């Protein structure tokens, strides 16, 4: 899909104003103390606004889902109480269908970027890959509304991923400061017109997303550090922490309001907070073996899930490529299939008699509760319906609840597990905002509860605890995070005593799953074709030098260059950076002056500040420009060389590029080991890395390395024998049986 | 004090075997799959061992302190029940004196490196500064035993800092694999003989330290990430998490044993776990203003604490410099002063009548409990003694406990706060292992409880909660961490619902305190003279180029160098790395071949594999060496050039340095901005950075940059005018009044 890679900007790693590192302009815009104060103040204000907005949206999201889905379930349940089963099914299926159709239509026609969870896109952005349109206003609106519709439609999708994307969108849009087109920019926001500050804001935004989805501020922070961010600084932790603290406070305040019953059907269900706190959550070393087994199976299931999801997404991609109509039909078919399963399966379960000593009414009245009546006689309840004919949040609460060990049958939990497993794989790839977190949690929880039921009295742990551990193991097996998942689960269940067990389960399941395949988000990123730059060098890279992978003809400019030349090169190449070389008489011998960016060249051409003769301009050059001209552009359409229209006369004039050149580009010698060059490229966060020749005397630049030159696909394309080397990844290959799928 | 800076090794950033990046030997030792498996296996085994050992030591530490201090308090309390006050004081003071003397003597005579908390030393090491002897076996033993003695001696010192140092020591020693001298090395440990793997292990060790001190596995992990580690990778999070999970499991198992009463006086007191869980821990937005005020004052107090601590440490340094006797006298005086205060102050408090409805016995029997009798009549208790005449752990528990709002008087809490504040400042600098965490927590908790008492019924929060928040604010004001402190406090109090409030308090207090001065550990590091490299470039560095700061005569070697030359240069300089240059006839023009380390040159000289004539040796050169020869040495005495004794004849021979040279050193052009060079140096974790000239034709190397060249003191020494520039740090200067101190 999206393959444009407008990556991170090397200048922005060291300062906020990319352009102004050039020799003449070391005194940057942020020169005065006032500017520093403005910048610091704005940094925190923006984080505050991100926290506030994401908190509000997260709450509104929950409120809408709880009410939409709530009304649907109340109406259908009431009909079933009156034995009008067909009518109930129709109401259920049609409302699901309409909601899915709505979500699919707005996604397909207004913002296809809003489909899916959005976490892979944000993760790739934070690594330096700009997929077009992922942070536009349209995407934001479609993501919020579409996610509400898709979740309310009882599709097996979550809202955590979309909330992360929403948070990132809000951060990006706030940092961009409205739109220049509509005159909404603000002078104080000019400091954020560069890649580094934007990346920081978006990291905070994604932390806020998870924080508001699970009411888990520390979990959200850790998630953004462990999974999302490619670069990390202590200062960023602090700001992200502030953002998630604001989210937590906002949610706390709003829930205070809702507890007084002003939020319609928003009951205990919203903003998942499962209290597994019970007196008997004690556990001993003798329980550890069961937990280990749970972790191992969870890891295997998780990697199987990733494997199947990838296959399904490949098939879906073939369908979706055919056009919007196919996309929408696919989404609608999934909706109908889901409705049939959710309504049909509970009929398979036998009705259980209501327990005598239950504290809850049985059968449940309204929409939540452990005892759904469904088709049963009065005094009986359908345990499968309590799980399956319910919102995911309520299902998770039912599974996590303690002291309900005898309420479910083996078969019901097993059917529920299988249904969730299949439906969540089938639902992710449709053209609607769809998260993976909640489906994975609910699937894992049902798996865990089933294991707990199988073990029965062999273990001291109650089934609710097993469900929590099952969720942990399945999350570890798919998402492959450790600390952040652990904290998110602790914050969800509000029981710190579970910590050691959850830790062990996560470690085991991640280790097991890593033997088979990768992280689910990495798989999706790969499917989408994002050139994600990993943090470590592959072993075979140590056997290559930089000179081995530099390819293609190198385009350089002279310090003072003819306009027609610049236009010609910009039109015929797609490079984003060009080395600037000074030759005699400007210097004694050819010497590398620096690196200029395509975007800056286009700005120079657009302003037409040309010179009639080749001469040096010095700092006067800047009088034609403001800092805005060279600031990183917003998320709209970038300037293109084709938009520049010059006369014959102008084409014959000259430009002094020196003042606009980054005179301190990072360089490596051509004999440098590729692995070491990658470390430099990745750790410093570069977009271009200049290669200089080892032996002086020849041309001063030997080539230019970009992200694509470090991609394993590129290198292995050049040196196919490397694949067969002993450096292959340590990974168990799935048996051929699975390949047949 | 220690200023040797044997920093991180650039080679080790990309591979495990530093030497073998040279052209001829790209096929490194880890070439075979078996080696990779061995390495991976050992990595996890070492983490397991670190977790296990640190967990055991943390538990033993607690057990010893609880029993030593417990016996002391039980004996004195029993004497006081019999009204033998003078005798009680003597027993108390003498036992404290003896324990302090013991701790001071072993520290002063066996391992002065074990004095203090050890966190600054470990933090500096992880930044690349090797202080000599901090990870020796002697230091480890003195740290453990000395810490037990010092804490049992009722000094106002903690055991968390020493446990971090202990964890780091254990990690370093395990990674080193015993001692070569005693034949304790193991072949599989050869992979860890380099800076990068050692740093990783030590990061895990320090995480384990905090985890075992507070039974806070996630808090420990975050502490090591936020405060300790200078480089951070996702993979490291996972391993550190595993380590702290092991610690948590070990502690859990051992506490299971202790709960059955087999641990002597180790009661609820050991391994601080304060349950503030109470039904009425609800809070509302109306409480936020009080919390803000608490945070602001806490921040001011925290920065004042840091300020005073620095002044006291400066005075102590003057005393300690005079010799071991002075050190020990200082420690003993502090012990006597402490004993007098702890025993004397409770007499100032008026006795309170025992509450009628108390669930605990009043006055308390044994050593813990809220109702110490001290000098009071039967039926009465001394509230100040309950706090002050107690271990710190018990005092914290008393302060944190809910539903005890009426048990203390204003004056008692205020006196306790002032005592803790002063004593902890006075106690830190003595020659004994001494942590800061627990003293800061107890001081902050008393401050918070006092504020809670002042507010009385104006706030809905109970005083125990105020104590927790006060501890948070004071921790934030001194340590300046956010996320890790927040999680540690949550794990300590086991109440996740406090999260938003603690977050807000920490943010406020850190922000306020940052306006005045720095982190307490940074202050101590600066006092100790460690050249700590910060993560960001100072603004004035943007105005300088690399060429502006390169100093001193540059020593280079030729690819084939005469032995006498090498010996001469090594004897006359202290450099740790030397550029290797090839000249005609080896190349057409002088060309930079690479960089060789001092340690490797000494190894070459020691092995005496010299050539009679200048010639190239190729890979044959390695047949005289094993990988061990070039591996990073252990923590013992490094090889010195003065140990090498060569004959006249050998001095006239030659060495081909090519096979032993790192042929891919990182380089920057001399016109590179200093700020950007610092980013490269810091992010990639270099020890040497070669500067190459901009214009080719001259000598191929213009200089070499090391850590010291990036130190602000060095740069501002060269360019004093920079200090006066507008780039000064944004920091409120403390009023002159305080300077008088």
From TrEMBL, chains A, B:
Bilayer topology: Multi-pass membrane protein
A Pfam family recorded for this sequence: CBS
Regions crossing the membrane: 41-64, 85-111, 236-255, 288-308, 328-349, 413-443, 464-490, 496-516
A GO term for molecular function: voltage-gated chloride channel activity
InterPro entries in the cross-refs: CBS_dom (IPR000644), CBS_dom_sf (IPR046342), Cl-channel/antiporter (IPR051280), Cl-channel_core (IPR014743), Cl_channel_pln (IPR002251), ClC (IPR001807)
Keywords: CBS domain, Chloride, Chloride channel, Ion channel, Ion transport, Membrane, Repeat, Transmembrane, Transmembrane helix, Transport, Voltage-gated channel
Main location (coarse class): membrane
CBS domain: residues covered: 660-721
Highest taxon in the source lineage: Eukaryota
Coiled-coil residues: none
Cellular localisation: Membrane
Any one annotated GO CC term: plant-type vacuole membrane
Residue ranges, annotated region (Disordered): 1-23
Similarity remark: Belongs to the chloride channel (TC 2.A.49) family.
PANTHER family: CHLORIDE CHANNEL PROTEIN CLC FAMILY MEMBER, CHLORIDE CHANNEL-LIKE PROTEIN CLC-G-RELATED
Protein name: Chloride channel protein
């Amino acid at each position: 899909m999206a393959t444009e890679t407008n990556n991170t900007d090397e200048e922005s790693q060291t300062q906020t104003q990319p352009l102004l590192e050039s020799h003449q302009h070391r005194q940057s815009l942020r020169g005065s103390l006032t500017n520093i104060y403005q910048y610091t103040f704005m940094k925190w204000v923006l984080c505050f606004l991100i926290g506030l907005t994401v908190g509000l949206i997260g709450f509104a999201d929950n409120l809408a889902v709880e009410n939409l889905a709530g009304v649907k379930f109340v109406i259908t349940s009431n009909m079933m109480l009156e034995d009008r089963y067909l009518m109930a099914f129709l109401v259920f299926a049609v409302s699901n269908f309409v909601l899915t159709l709505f979500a699919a239509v707005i996604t397909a026609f207004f913002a296809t970027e809003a489909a899916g969870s959005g976490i892979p896109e944000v993760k790739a952005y934070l690594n330096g890959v700009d997929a077009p349109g992922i942070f536009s206003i349209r995407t934001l609106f479609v993501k919020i509304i579409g996610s509400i519709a898709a979740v309310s439609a009882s599709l097996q999708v979550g809202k955590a991923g979309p909330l992360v994307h929403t948070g990132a969108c809000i951060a990006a849009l706030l940092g961009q400061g409205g739109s220049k087109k509509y005159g909404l920019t603000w002078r104080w926001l000019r400091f954020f017109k560069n890649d580094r500050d934007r990346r920081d804001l978006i990291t905070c935004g994604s932390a806020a997303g998870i924080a508001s989805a699970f009411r888990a501020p520390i979990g959200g922070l850790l998630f953004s550090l462990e999974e999302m961010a490619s670069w990390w600084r202590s200062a960023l932790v602090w700001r992200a922490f502030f953002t998630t603290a604001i989210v937590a406070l906002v949610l706390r305040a709003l829930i205070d309001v809702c507890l007084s019953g002003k939020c319609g059907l928003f009951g205990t269900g919203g903003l998942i907070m499962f209290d597994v706190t019970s007196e008997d959550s004690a556990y001993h070393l003798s329980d550890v073996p069961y937990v280990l087994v749970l972790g191992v199976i969870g890891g295997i299931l998780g990697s199987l899930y990733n494997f199947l999801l990838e296959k399904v997404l490949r098939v879906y991609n073939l369908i979706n490529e055919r056009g919007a109509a196919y996309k929408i039909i696919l989404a609608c078919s999934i909706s109908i299939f889901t409705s049939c399963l959710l309504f049909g399966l509970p009929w398979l379960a036998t009705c259980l008699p209501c327990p005598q000593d239950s504290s809850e009414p049985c059968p449940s009245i309204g929409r939540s509760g452990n005892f759904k009546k469904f088709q049963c006689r009065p005094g009986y309840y359908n345990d499968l319906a309590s799980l399956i004919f319910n919102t995911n949040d309520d299902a998770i609460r039912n599974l996590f609840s303690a002291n309900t060990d005898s309420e479910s049958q083996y078969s019901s939990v097993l059917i529920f597990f299988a249904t969730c497993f299949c439906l969540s794989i089938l639902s992710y790839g449709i053209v609607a905002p769809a998260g993976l977190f909640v489906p994975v949690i609910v699937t894992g929880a049902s798996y865990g509860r089933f294991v707990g039921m199988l073990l029965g009295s062999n273990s001291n742990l109650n089934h609710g605890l097993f469900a929590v551990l099952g969720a942990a193991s399945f999350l570890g097996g798919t998402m492959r995070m450790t600390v952040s998942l652990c904290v998110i689960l602790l914050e969800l269940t509000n029981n710190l005593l579970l910590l050691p067990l959850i830790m062990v389960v996560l470690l085991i399941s991640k280790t097991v799953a890593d033997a088979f395949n990768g992280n689910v988000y990495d798989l999706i990123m790969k499917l989408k074709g994002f050139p994600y730059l990993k943090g470590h060098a592959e072993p075979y890279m140590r056997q290559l030098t930089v000179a081995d992978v530099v390819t293609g003809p190198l385009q350089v400019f002279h310090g003072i260059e003819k306009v027609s030349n610049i236009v010609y090169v910009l039109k015929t190449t797609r490079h984003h950076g060009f080395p600037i070389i000074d030759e005699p008489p400007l210097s004694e011998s050819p010497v590398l002056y620096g690196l200029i960016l395509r975007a800056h060249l286009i700005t120079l051409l657009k302003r037409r500040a040309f010179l009639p003769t080749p001469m040096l301009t010095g700092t006067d050059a800047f009088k034609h420009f403001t800092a805005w001209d060279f600031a990183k552009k917003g998320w709209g359409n970038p300037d293109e060389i084709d938009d520049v229209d010059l006369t014959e006369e102008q084409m014959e004039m000259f430009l002094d590029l020196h003042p606009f050149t980054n005179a301190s580009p990072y360089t490596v010698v051509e004999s440098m080991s590729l692995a070491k060059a990658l470390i430099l490229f990745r750790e410093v966060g570069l977009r271009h890395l200049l290669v200089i020749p080892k032996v002086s005397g020849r041309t001063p630049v030997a080539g230019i390395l970009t992200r694509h030159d470090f991609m394993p696909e590129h290198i292995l394309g050049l040196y196919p024998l490397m694949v067969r080397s002993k450096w292959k990844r340590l990974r168990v290959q799935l048996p051929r049986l699975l390949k047949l799928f």
